[in-house]
Design goal:
There is one protein chain. This protein is α+β, with helices and mostly antiparallel strands and 142 residues long. It has one domain (2-137): Heat Shock Protein 90, CATH 3.30.565. Helix content is 28%, strand content 35%. Strands 1-2-3-4-6-5 form a 6-stranded antiparallel beta sheet, with helices on one face. α1 packs antiparallel against α2 and α2 runs antiparallel to α3 (110-117). It is globular, with a radius of gyration of 15 Å. The model is unreliable at 1-9 (pLDDT under 50).
Length: 142
């Protein structure tokens, strides 16, 4: 596993954090750790639990719905007012928010959870796949 803090500054002059992980359920633990590390470094500890849950769902969706060897977890602070948590994989299938029909369904809640926890979320198509992201609001000037 590779862990690197990018050298490229963001508009807030905070470094971005990124890690390439196997596309496997066991990658949830290091992904959550990376999110918590970034948020603590930025003085945003109050977002740690929410950020960890968002990245858990993003990683789980890649593991469940793609046939890729690895994923890339990315945490950036593109502006003073929000943090972006993203997972990139090599699938070009755009995820869609499902409407659950039964309370006993065991899967299909990932994007609904991301939708409920984030300020906004989306998907960016990339030359080699896609990046699914969720933005968490934070107080300006922190």
């Amino acid at each position: 596993m590779t862990v690197t803090a990018t050298a490229r500054p963001t508009p807030t002059e905070h470094p971005g954090y990124t890690q390439t992980l196997p596309c496997a359920a066991r990658s949830v633990v290091p992904a959550r750790s990376l999110v918590r590390t970034a948020l603590v470094a930025w003085g945003l500890e109050h977002l740690s639990d929410t950020g960890a849950l968002v990245v858990t769902e993003l990683v789980s969706n890649s593991v469940t719905h793609t046939r890729t060897y690895s994923i890339r977890v990315i945490i950036t602070r593109p502006g003073e007012t929000f943090v972006r948590i993203a997972v990139a994989d090599n699938s070009r299938t755009i995820p869609t928010l499902r409407t659950l029909t039964g309370v006993h369904e065991e899967t299909g809640r990932g994007l609904a959870i991301i939708d409920a926890l984030t300020w906004r979320w989306g998907t960016d198509l990339l030359p080699g796949g896609k990046r699914v992201w969720g933005d968490l609001r934070c107080e300006a000037g922190e």
